[in-house]
Amino acid sequence: MDIKAAGTALVKGSYDSIRGISAVFKMEDEIEVKRNMSPFRNSNIKASFRDRTKQSPVKRKGQSKVWTRICHCSFMNGGVFLFSIFLFNYVLLPCLNSSIHYIFGNDSFMARLTWLWIEPILSLTFATIWTAPLFLLSKAVNSLWFQDIADSAYRSSRGKPPSWQSVSVWIADSIFSVAVQLLFLIQTMLVSYVPIYPLGSVFSLVHMSLLYSLYAFEYKWFNMGWELHRRLAYIERNWPYFIGFGLPLAVITQLPSSWVLSGGLFSLLFPFFIVSGNEANPVDDVGIYPLRLFSPVIAVSNMIFARTIGKKHISQKSGNVANLRQKFNQE
C-alpha cells in the first residue's frame, strides 16, 4: 500500500472540494468575457463569432443558471432559515430574558421561575410553527435546485448528458441509490457508537466524508450514465481522494450540536460542492486496497428489495436492481 500516494490523494481531494467557490466565480467571469468581446474587428473574428453564437448561448445560460440557483440556495438556507434561527436564539430570547429580569429584579426567584417555563414554551412554539415547516420546505426545494445546479454545470462544461439506455434501469438505479444512501447513513450513526475513543468519531467522520462525496459526484456520474455499481466501486477503489473531498463539509456540518443547524449548513454549502465535483478530476489507481464500506448496505438493500417486492417481481419488473448488486460484486 502506497501511503504517500494515498496521503497526496486525500489532500488533493480536500483542495478540489474547496475549489467550488472559485469555480463558480470563474464561470461568471467567462460569461462576462464572452459578452464583452467585440465580434466586428475583422472578417475572421466575425466568422469565429458566428461559430461561437451557435454554442455560447447554451453555455452562458447554463453558467448563469448555476449562479442564480446558488444565490437562491444561499438566500433560503442562509438568509432565511439560518438567520431566523440565529435571530431567535441569540437576539430575541436574550432580550426577553433581560426584560423579565429587569421587571422582576435580577436575582429574584420570580424572574428565574418565569424564565424557566416561558423559554421552553417559546422554543417549542418556534420550532413547531417555523423551524420544522421551513426545514422540510427547504429540503424539498433544495433537492430541485441541487439537480438544476448539477445539470446546468454539467452542460456548461461537458455538453448535453447522454441518455440512459433503458428507463427501467434508470428507475431501478435511482430507487436502489436512495436505499443505499439511507442505509449508509444509518451505518454511519452506528459506527459512531464504537466504545473505543476516538475511533467512533473517526469512523463516523470517514463515513460522512464518503457519503458527502457520493452526494456531490453522483450528479455528474449519473449524467455520464454510470450505474450505481460503478459509482460505488469507483469510490471504494479510490477512497483516499473521496475521503479528502467530503472531509471539509463533514467537519463543518458536525460542528453544530443541533441537527437542524447542521442540515442548514449542509444545504447552504452543498451547491458549491456540486460544482466542485463537476469540475474535479479524481485521483485514481494510487495502489491502495479498496475500502468495502458500501458492501454491507448493498447486501441489506438487496435483501430488503427481495423480501418487500418479491424475487419474482424483481426478476420481471425490477430485475435491474439485482443486476446492479451482481455487477457491484464483480468489481
UniProtKB/TrEMBL annotation:
<comment type="similarity">
    <text>Belongs to the EI24 family.</text>
</comment>
<feature type="transmembrane region" description="Helical">
    <location>
        <begin position="196"/>
        <end position="217"/>
    </location>
</feature>
<feature type="transmembrane region" description="Helical">
    <location>
        <begin position="167"/>
        <end position="190"/>
    </location>
</feature>
<dbReference type="InterPro" id="IPR059112">
    <property type="entry name" value="CysZ/EI24"/>
</dbReference>
<feature type="transmembrane region" description="Helical">
    <location>
        <begin position="238"/>
        <end position="266"/>
    </location>
</feature>
<keyword id="KW-0472">Membrane</keyword>
<feature type="transmembrane region" description="Helical">
    <location>
        <begin position="70"/>
        <end position="93"/>
    </location>
</feature>
<keyword id="KW-0812">Transmembrane</keyword>
<protein>
    <submittedName>
        <fullName>Uncharacterized protein</fullName>
    </submittedName>
</protein>
<dbReference type="GO" id="GO:0016020">
    <property type="term" value="C:membrane"/>
</dbReference>
<keyword id="KW-1133">Transmembrane helix</keyword>
<dbReference type="Pfam" id="PF07264">
    <property type="entry name" value="EI24"/>
</dbReference>
<feature type="transmembrane region" description="Helical">
    <location>
        <begin position="286"/>
        <end position="305"/>
    </location>
</feature>
<feature type="transmembrane region" description="Helical">
    <location>
        <begin position="113"/>
        <end position="137"/>
    </location>
</feature>
